[in-house]
Specification:
heterodimer; A: 494 residues; alpha/beta; Aspartate Aminotransferase, domain 2; Aspartate Aminotransferase, domain 1; 7-stranded mixed β-sheet; B: 429 residues; 3 domains; 4-stranded antiparallel β-sheet
Amino acid sequence: MTEPLSFELSRPAMPPRLPSAGQTGPAPADLLPAAALRTRPPALPRLSEPEIMRHYSRLASLNYSISENFYPLGSCTMKYNPVANEVAAALPGFAGLHPYQDEDSVQGALELMWRLEQALCAVVGVERVTLQPAAGAHGEWTALRMIAAYHDSRKENRTEVLVPDSAHGTNPASAALSGFHVVEVRSGPDGRISLGDLESKLGPKTAALMLTNPNTLGLFEREILDIAEMVHATGALLYYDGANLNAFMGICRPGDMGFDAVHMNLHKTFTTPHGGGGPGAGPVGVKADLVPFLPSPTVERVDGHFKLDHRRPQSIGRVRSFYGNFGMLVRAYTYILAMGGDGLSQASQDAVLSANYLRKLVEDDLEMPHEGPCMHEFVASAGRLNHEHGVRALDLAKGLLDRHFYAPTVYFPLVVPEAVMVEPTETESKATLDSFGAAIKELVAEAKTNPQALHDAPRTMPVGRLDEVGAARRINAWLQGQSDDPVLRWKAPE
Amino acid sequence: MPYLVHSPEDRTAMLERIGARTMDDLLVDIPRSLRIDALDLPDGLSELETMAEITAMAARNRVFADRLTFRGGGVYRRFIPAAVAAVTSKPEFYTAYTPYQAEASQGTLQAIFEWQTLIAELTALDVSNASLYDGATAVAEAAMMAFVHTGRDEVIVSGYLHPEYMQVLRAFGAGRGIKVRKGGEPTKKTAAVIFQQPDFLGLLVDARSLTDAAHAEGALAIACVDPISLALLAPPGEYGADIAVGEGQQLGLSPSYGGPHVGFIACTRELVRRLPGRLVGASHDAEGRRGFVLALAAREQHIRREKATSNICTNHSLCALAASVYLTYMGPEGLRQVAETGFRRAHMLAERLAALPGWEMAFPERQFLNEFPVRAPKGPSLARKLARKGILGGLDVSRWFRELKGVLTFTCTEVNDERALDELLAAIG
């Protein structure tokens, strides 16, 4: 089942009924030079409301989503998105605010941002938090700009950022965009960062080590205190990639581990929805030494009155227009209020419990390259299945789609061959975990008896496996419908 | 506790199956000295109490009526068809992840493909990506594309670019060693000339000659455009811009104190491999059925790591979806009507304001669409006076531009009916 494009459904000239421009005031053509005007109207589709609702409802039905399906996507923390969050963000008192209203008229909005900052400080153990970054990678980059400014302020020329080989791809990309040279640090056989390799790479040029804890293998970096000491001894700073923060809220805090800067994904840990790829929000928390470099403006409380502070002479500047993804901040704060300190702690404990339980259910079916216990996620390998039966991690992923589960993250982290990375989160019930475990068992059995079935999966989705390599080569296919390929062309023949 | 699903019995059974006695057995890797007993936060609340507290905070804000909002500066009040929220509040869209598994994500992927095509059509450029965070970061990303493409390290910002976009551009530029110059002629060192059309004050610039001047020195031309203006104005692709960027808030998104909104970026086919972020392409399965996939992923951070064109992972898909619904509802004719209504009303308002004693157009020789700068007597007290009547008046732009002391920009869209204009004039008194 597929749905035509809006462009294919569009029918000529049935414009919506809009308030009339009236005849008062001049028309554009009366005043503007002809050269400034558009000669050919843009070829936008036009659908009536009934057609729009049907088109997009059909598209919606082609999606898997957390509201309907288990999304065991490792490193993505696909937990349930509370509906109260949506109600809160849509309140006219928030959604209707213009960013350039006077401070007196937005005290509630500033208070919410201030309170959210306090709450996030408490969860991760830092001095201040900026709410401006729009996403996790944006937060990483913001933190690295602050780290660069910190070293500059001390007249130190530090040009390298160390990144473990198991790190998220955004880490090295953010470091490079921040002007740093990226140096990779190897993982040891236990899946943790190799202290020996780290030591050999730390030096007077090191600006920071970027670390996820638990790491992308779902393992807690047991030697984090030693790591922090080594890094700080060279004068470098320690950066925390908060993608995996859901593992230990209320159990321990990155700030106490020695991290100097911490980014958080509100769209992972704090339940703001992923929206099919965003918007998210990526606040960054910092220890006292980095506070002067926070993006401008910050929200301050002075005598019970909230204000935006633009006078920050050492600030790295502004990283996004206005004050960040405010609507996502409202959602995250609503969640934190509802959960409270006790609820957030229980959430992390349940997330760890669920991951270990699921790991147990599938440990006889897939290889576990590292010893447990794991934290909030685990990485298995389909290496043996591939070797013995030619069934790859991708085949398992597609097979799961046919069983009404979204797929785990596959082929990441890069340090595990045929990696299958599973993160169940605290909002999946034991019954769901049991049925996922059973599905893995079935798939592994099928791989042994009928591997071709898995190569042909998925069979129950709107489309079969798509040619992803071909799409990359056929750039013209999506250039305004200029392709001659009848499968790809969306424009009706003239 | 809300949103948690395990019962105490479940937890016991799960621990047993794992072979652990207590949760602490699962947390053995965490050094004892790091463990905390509890978070320094209040306990959770019931939904009733949570919403009461949130609603009370919302009530401590003042919301100005759409029709009495004459302030723009990058965020505008527009009519938003009800269909927009009806679509974006479908959980199948808003609770889905980035569409890595294409076969289970065709709804999101096709919606993004449609968005890309809409933006390509509006800007008259070859290709657009799946969206960026906002207009400001879109400008910065475009500058970085030009920096890499030309191997030159200077960008020139011509005229009144939104001051916050300028600040973001400087912050991004600093990370890559890009020098941002305000004004001046391009030279052989210039990677790109960046301009906003209409500019931050609402005034039209000569986009074609800025583009030609950039190209004469081998630099790229980057146009930051208002998407609704493109129903009336010549699109970037027509005057030769290499990259068009902008803010899509006006396409069906509420002001929401500045976000989340959506940035867009479109470029010529020569630059496609330098585009940041996600890109969706059309493909097909073994039976020849059309389907959509993430394309050209080899540019991206999860594959290329430190060599990626950008670090973008999360974008603003759901906001792009809202904008697509808006544009599809409007169609070319509706969009033109919206743009023209704002144009007529703003010109009517400008004429009436300029006729007031002590008021005058700040740049009488320049053309504008639906936002314009006007010199007004006693700016700050005027804003308070209007606020008392429920009116969000013009934006004082001197806070960013000293040379514009006493200049306010006013904006009109289709939501500012003619009676609202009368009320504004009466309140100014």
